[in-house]
User: Fold this.
Amino acid sequence: MSHTAPIPSHRKPRRSSSKLALRAGVAGGVLSTIAVAASPAQAEPVTETIEMPTLTNVDLSGALSNAVAASAEATEQSALAQDLRAQEDAAAAAAAKDAKKAKAEAERKAEAERKAKEAEEKARAEAERASRTSERTTLSASSSDNGGGSDSGSSYSAPATGSAAAIVAFARAQVGDAYVMGATGPNAWDCSGLVQAAYRQAGIDLPRVSGAQSSMGTSVSLDNLQPGDILYWGSRSGSYHVAIYVGGGNFVGAQNPSKGVVEQSIDWDRPSGAVRIL
Assistant:
């Protein structure tokens, strides 16, 4: 082979542009057909138009204001309801307290009236017994025939009668009650409170404290006591304790918190003196 001879090419011969175009057109047509066959039926276009309301700034602000006003009104109503309930609860508590106080006061008055009635009945009974005893003593004295003139000097001390009997009966009716400083009954007493209440049964108003009570009336000897006399301990104008002589050498007094109201002999704690008011 001549060195000038043309060397055969190993490349494939080029296809002509017309053949390439033809092949591309066929391929495109086939693909288009397949795509059309595979795609679903096209939906009908929407022809109806829905108009939405237009919200302006004025509408939004008005709605917000109404909502805020409604919320504020609801809050105010709730607060008013709570305040009303609180007032009702307070009124109910106050009414219950007043009712309890009124009941206690009514019970106290009823108890005092009961004791006063018992004291009055007891005083009446003692007065009747004293009257019968006095009649028997008078008869006995008039029927005596010893002819010697006067008796041996012994004296008869009659039981309490009249106002003194009412005082004594009331004092004895309180025996067993408690002693409480400053108490004036009906179930607890201090010494002067008991004396004052007892004398009230006879229509006599005494001062409240023992020193003033012992300054009333006239001073009497402890050897010449009568039922209803006021016994005192300490000086007459400055006594620290008082009690009521009930006869038979005994007195009734509100002694102290451990003993309460008792009846006992004057020899148990000899008083400093006595005064007579009746």
User: Anything to note?
Assistant: The beta strands are 178-179, 188-189, 218-220, 230-234, 239-247, 250-256, 260-265, 273-276.
